[in-house]
Write a structure and sequence with these properties.
Number of domains of chain B: 3
Number of strands of chain B: 26
CATH architecture of the largest domain in chain A: Roll
CATH superfamily of the largest domain in chain A: Beta-grasp domain
Helix content of chain B: 25-40%
Distance between the termini of chain A: 25 Å
CATH architecture of the largest domain in chain B: 2-Layer Sandwich
CATH superfamily of the largest domain in chain B: Aldehyde oxidase/xanthine dehydrogenase, molybdopterin binding domain
Largest sheet of chain A: 5 strands, mixed
Radius of gyration of chain B: 27 Å
Strand content of chain A: 5-15%
Strand order of the largest sheet of chain A: 4-3-8-6-7
Oligomer: heterodimer
Largest sheet of chain B: 7 strands, mixed
Strand order of the largest sheet of chain B: 3-5-1-12-9-10-11
Structural class of chain A: alpha+beta
Largest interface: A-B, 52 and 53 residues
Chain lengths: 169, 767
């Protein structure tokens, strides 16, 4: 439970990228705003209404749009962002294939797209192209036409299945 | 150039790892703690005078630092369009004005310690408006007695303000009257295209602060850092030397960031407060308060001989520039000059009236007027073929522009003035047609049944485009040698996510005989990088690329001299191969060793060279788009099930990135054709200013789009490139509507083909 502080402030406890945080938040602050305030700048604001997916993060392993969630609701939860995709300084297979196959253009949707894809692969290690398209259908990309994004997710899934990288977050 | 080592390779972008790691590199990621936030009070009325603004309650709110109204800022007429000086767009805009001209126009600005306070203060501003009659349609705006939108006396460059005529264009080749008289058949059709918005994922955002010398540093998401510097200096009445503009990573632009939309205010506030300030659009503001594509009414009249030879082609356009004339002359100019040269005709006329209305402001949008023109032209060609009983491809082939042809329009209709001669030196259209056609072979009859009535059809459209603006587009490049044989490539060119940093570095690396990793790219910073007009007019790979190649060649020659010294040989006798200078006797020295020795050998020196390039030509790329669609007869829903474009790009410096431009353009074209439309109520308010209500294609709306590259030998560029960034948006809509005709027999002459519109037409046709 969030602990009430003086005035309208609250203190919450949450884990972000395997690290414990105890930030003071205001009741109206979104998870997106909190994450960016804590320095996790990969999480992007683009619409603020849950229609574009640029702010997608994992909450207890499942993709959520952090602009639609209030920070106090994340109390006691585990959040993962792109900054937490690799802990050893290397790249997650999805990051590798996005890079190698040229999936990102402007890159603004990429963090959200990556997190949606991580969420998919943790539930479905061998998705079809249609299943990938379904999983990222809440993430708008205005540059790519999605083809190389789908290619990259399929290629990363294969890499993970073949044990060429860690896929569990 | 068969032995290329870096060019023509699909290397990952130089910034790819930073992107996938999500490192902070966009404007909003760099805002310093304690920065002020500025927000804009927007007009609730389409047309009104501002009688007074009571700012006292807002100012009294704790945390509010500054409130600005038209009385607090310099009144300098300017255009927001980031174009060469003097801009061909009318100077009809003011930082803040005592009149509002559309719902969403700037009224006042609140600056506060945080955004919430600033937003709260907006509600405390009390504005007294004097309501004026509004006009929401371009044709109505041009009628006698229409309310005059720009009645101020200090605007400049408006064609006829009293008639709401922002710009007027007339261009004649031969005499269409004589052509129509000679024609065996004359066809006349009308089309209309809608308001659409670019929807870059990153909204407009600018940040400004003062440096230690109290110069203003503007960090902004822009396509045109140098034009921004000049315009903000002029509007704020300070010397250009007092402004530094930095373009960090840009989260998509597509033309909408070829504008000064926040920067003038942001600089003003930083100067006034002395503190860092950030301004960021909401997504709703991005829709109604940034820029849009020009809506147009188009009337095309074309005369043919009995055998299908085109003999006269006339396009008349009424364009809507909205409340201000950003790109009002040049976008509609391109509607004619980009589309009409595609078909040989001895007689061509283009006429455009560009009207002000009390609606959001149109501007540059990928394609720059050409998609509107091609929707009319390529729909018309299909209709004519049908009515003449000819194959639509054969009718086009009979009339297509060919290699060696002069573009008759180029000299008459340039960038808001007379243009420059243009000859087609390379043309791969036949290969484009073949490849795209084969890529969309048609997938047989659709699965239909009593509860699923589908009609399937296939269609296509062709187009050509330009590469830069001849006589205008100039770019500089600087290359600096480092001790390890790496090179700093300093460019004013603006990578918007397109990959221009990468392709420019690839060209430099190729010339210098090193790897892409040896190029350290920095773009764009008006203090540190040379001038570049910016990323527009499909110019960067061609114009900035030529500057980069020239600078690299100069550096290579300097290193050749060093190598000659080291080898004790006449530098002129050295061959340069595989990164090595090689003497006739076989002794060789690598470019990296020459680099090191240039610092620590006998003649110690910093080798740094700059070059600039002004294009005087505009080589056209060519494109064929083929599409297959399913039309659901019960819902009116259209689905693109297969689509491909093949483009003659000259040479693809990075095929993956070139393909990305093609596929991305097609996706935007599908949105233009089928779903995207800004909708206004009868008061001029944009009622679907959100990503919920304005429908851009998502992954499940699109098939696996195919982007195909055709290479030709374009002699005007050192590596033979032509443009690829915009062309593929030009012909998607007519390819789709032609496919819909093929499926249903219904011609749609109005975009977009929403289910509602389609269903009405299907019912009318008894389907």
């Amino acid at each position: 439970m969030p602990r009430r502080k003086r005035g309208s402030g609250l203190r919450i406890e949450l884990t972000i990228n395997e690290k414990a945080y105890e930030p003071d938040v205001s009741a109206g602050e979104t998870l997106l705003e909190l994450l960016r305030r804590l320095g996790l700048k990969s999480v992007k604001f683009a619409c603020g209404t849950g229609n574009c997916g640029a702010c997608t993060v994992l909450l207890d392993g499942k993709p959520v749009m952090s602009c639609l969630m209030l920070a106090p609701q994340a109390d006691g939860r585990r959040v993962t962002t792109v900054e937490g995709l690799s802990t050893d300084g290397g790249l997650h297979p999805l990051q590798q294939t996005f890079m190698e196959l040229g999936a990102p253009q402007c890159g603004f949707c990429t963090p959200g797209m990556l997190m949606a894809a991580v969420g998919l692969l943790s539930e479905n290690p061998d998705p079809s192209r249609d299943e990938v398209r379904e999983a990222i259908s809440g993430n708008i990309c205005r540059c790519s036409g999605y083809v190389r994004v789908v290619d990259a997710v399929i290629a990363a899934a294969k890499r993970i299945r073949e044990g060429m990288g860690k896929g569990n977050v | 150039m068969s032995d290329l080592r870096v060019v023509s390779k699909s290397l990952p972008k130089v910034d790819a790892e930073a992107i996938v790691r999500g490192v902070p590199h966009y404007v909003m990621d760099m805002v310093p703690a304690g920065a002020l936030h500025a927000v804009i009070l927007r007009s609730p009325h389409a047309h009104a005078g501002i009688k007074g603004i009571d700012v006292e309650r807002a100012k009294a709110l704790p945390g509010v630092v500054l409130v600005l109204t038209h009385k607090d800022v310099p009144r300098v007429p300017f255009t927001t369009a980031g174009q060469n000086y003097p801009e061909p767009s009318p100077y009809d805009t003011f930082m803040l004005d005592d009149k509002v001209r559309f719902v969403g126009d700037r009224v006042a600005v609140v600056v506060a310690e945080d955004k919430q306070t600033a937003m709260a203060a907006l509600a405390l501003l009390e504005v007294e408006y004097e309501m004026l009659p509004a006009v929401l349609d371009a044709r109505d705006a041009l009628k006698e007695g229409a309310p005059v939108i720009h009645d101020e006396t200090d605007s400049q460059g408006i064609h006829d303000a009293g008639r709401n005529l922002a710009a007027h264009i007339e261009m004649d080749v031969g005499s269409v009257e004589e052509g129509f008289a000679e024609a065996d058949y004359v066809f006349e059709k009308e089309f209309s295209v809608q308001y659409v918005q670019h929807v870059p994922m990153e909204n407009h955002v600018s940040m400004a602060y003062l440096d230690d010398k109290r110069r203003v540093v503007l960090v902004t998401s822009t396509q045109v850092p140098f034009h921004v510097r000049r315009i903000v200096a002029r509007v704020n009445q300070i010397p250009i030397s007092r402004v530094r503009v930095i373009k960090p990573r840009v989260g998509g632009a597509f033309g909408v960031k070829q504008e000064v939309i926040l920067e003038d205010l942001c600089v003003h506030i930083a100067l006034k407060t002395g503190k860092p300030v950030v301004m960021e659009f909401s997504r709703a503001e991005e829709f109604f308060a940034s820029r849009t594509r020009h809506p147009m009414y188009l009337k095309i009249k074309t005369g043919f001989k009995r055998d299908g030879t085109m003999i006269a082609n006339e396009l008349r356009v009424v364009a809507n520039t909205g409340a201000y004339g950003a790109h009002a002359l040049t976008v509609p100019s391109n509607t004619g000059s980009k589309s009409l040269p595609l078909y040989r005709s001895p007689n061509i006329r283009y006429v455009a009236d560009v009207a002000y209305t009390n609606l959001p402001v149109a501007g540059a949008f990928r394609g720059y007027g050409a998609p509107q023109g091609y929707f009319a032209l390529e729909s018309m060609m299909d209709e004519v073929a049908c009515e003449l009983g000819m194959d639509p491809l054969e009718l086009r082939r009979k009339n297509l522009i060919r290699q060696g042809d002069e573009d008759p329009i180029a000299t008459k209709l340039g960038e808001g003035k007379e243009g420059f001669a243009r000859t087609v030196e390379s043309c791969g259209m036949e290969d484009c047609i073949r490849l795209a056609s084969e890529a969309v072979p048609g997938s047989g009859p659709p699965e239909s049944g009593p509860f699923r009535r589908i009609k399937r059809g296939r269609g296509f459209a062709l187009c050509m485009h330009g590469t830069g603006i001849p006589g205008d587009d100039m770019a500089g490049a600087t290359i600096k040698v480092n001790e390890d044989g790496s090179f700093n490539l300093l460019i004013g060119a603006a990578d918007l996510g397109t990959g221009s940093d990468t392709v420019l570095a690839q060209m430099a690396a190729e010339v210098l005989g090193v790897a892409l990793d040896d190029m350290v790219v920095y773009s764009a910073d008006t203090d540190c990088t040379p001038f570049d007009v910016g990323a527009y007019a499909s110019s960067t790979t061609f114009v900035s690329g030529t500057a980069v190649v020239r600078a690299a060649e100069k550096v290579r020659e300097r290193l050749r001299a060093v190598a000659g010294d080291l080898l004790g040989t006449d530098p002129g006798s050295l061959e340069f191969e595989g990164g090595c200078f090689e003497a006739p006797q076989g002794k060789r020295i690598h470019v990296k060793e020459a680099a090191l020795k240039s610092f620590y050998g006998e003649h110690k020196q910093q080798i740094v060279e700059s070059a600039s390039f002004l294009t005087m030509v505009c080589p056209p790329p060519f494109c064929a788009c083929f599409a297959e669609v399913d039309v659901d007869l019960d819902t009116g829903m259209i689905r693109v099930i297969d689509i491909a474009s093949a483009v003659d790009v000259g040479r693809a410096i990075n095929p993956t990135l070139a393909e990305g431009q093609i596929v991305g353009s097609i996706a935007q074209g599908v949105g233009y054709a089928l779903t995207e439309e800004m909708i206004f109520n009868d008061k001029g308010k944009n009622v679907n200013a959100s990503l919920m209500d304005y429908k851009v294609p998502v992954s499940t709306d699109l098939p696996d789009i195919k982007g195909l590259i055709v290479e030709t030998d374009e002699p005007s560029h050192p590596f033979g490139v032509k443009s690829v960034g915009e062309i593929c948006l030009d012909n998607v809509a007519p390819a789709i509507t032609n496919a819909v005709f093929n499926a249903t027999g219904i011609r749609f002459r109005e975009l977009p083909l929403t289910p509602e519109r389609v269903l009405k037409a299907l019912r009318k046709a008894g389907l």
